[in-house]
Amino acid sequence: xxxxxxxxxxxxxxxxxxxxxxxxxxxxxxxxxxxxxxxxxxxxxxxxxxxxxxxxxxxxxxxxxxxxxxxxxxxxxxxxxxxxxxxxxxxxxxxxxxxxxxxxxxxxxxxxxxxxxxxxxxxxxx
Length: 126
Prior knowledge:
Layout: H1 6-9, E1 15-17, E2 21-27, E3 36-42, E4 47-51, E5 56-63, E6 66-70, E7 76-79, E8 84-87, E9 92-97, E10 101-108
Antiparallel strand pairs: 1-2, 2-3, 3-10, 4-9, 5-8, 5-10, 6-7, 6-9
């Protein structure tokens, strides 16, 4: 059994911050599960252009409001607590945060922990 707390992740190398986000990476590749689990904050007023070419990502909004846009079609969906979106085809997407957003995110394959976004908004594989 693995038991972890958010407090154990904060202010460690697994707590990655950027201009528009904080990724608190609670489960990572070293945990041996094949996926990683993140508690992510997206800052109000920010826009992120992302495309995870090497990962499938599922996101579940638990706080805040915003929208996600599928770049290929221009279609947008509102984000609010209780909304999930899954990038099941490595979809290029844009996340816009109206208020601070808090998302629970799962990546497969698992992130190792130190990844940062490439210029195109993706992560390299571990």
